[in-house]
Amino acid sequence: MPTYSSYPVTNSTANTEREYQEVLKNYKSETAEVLTYLLNGESPEEPKTALTVENTSRCNMVLTVSGSKYYKRIPIGAGKIGSVMIPKNQTYKLSGMVCKSSYQTTKFISTSYSVKLSN
Fold first, then answer.
1. HEC profile for 35-88?
2. How far apart are CA 21 and CA 95, in angstroms?
3. CA distance 78 to 57
4. What is the side-by-side strand order in the sheet with 81-87?
C-alpha cells in the first residue's frame, strides 16, 4: 500500500522540493532494466514497457504514475531523466508539479512512452 504525504495544496516549489527529497530517500531506480529493454528492442510477448520522462526544467519534481493495480512516485531531478517499467496495455494517469506548473495527463500505454517536461 503506498504511503501518502500531506502537503498544503499550494503550488509551492518548497513543498515540491520536500516531496522530492522524501521520495528520493527510498526510491529504487529502474534505469538498468529500462535501458536493457530499450536496447534489446520491444517484444510483443513482453508484459511490461518503458516509460521515460525528461525533466528539462530548473526544478526537481516527483511524477506520480497510477493505473490499474499500479502506483509509483518517481523523483526526477532538474535536467534529469526518470524512467520506470510499467505493465503495458493499460491506461495511466501521469501527474506532478514542474516548478509552479501542474502537469497531468491520462494515456493508454501499449509501447514505450517518452515525455519531455519543462517549466
1. HHHHHHCCCCCCCEEEEEEEECCCCCEEEEEEECCEEEEEEECCCCEEEEEEEC
2. 17
3. 6
4. 81-87, 48-55, 113-117
Contact yes or no for 50/36 (Cβ under 8 A): no
Task: Give Cβ neighbours of residue 16 (< 8 Å, ≥ 6 apart).
Answer: 59, 60, 61, 62, 97, 99
Residues paired with 59 in a beta bridge:
none
Which whole-number Å values give the CA distances from 28 to 31, 56, 83, 95, 111, in the listed order? 9, 22, 11, 19, 23
Q: Report the amino acid identity of residue 106.
A: T
- The pLDDT tens digits of the residues spanning 5-61 come to 334 344 567 888 999 999 999 999 999 999 999 999 888 889 999 999 999 999 999
- Decide: 60 and 100 in contact? Cβ < 8 Å: no
Number of Cβ within a 10 Å radius of residue 84: 19
pTM of the model: 0.83
Greatest pairwise CA separation for the chain in angstroms: 43
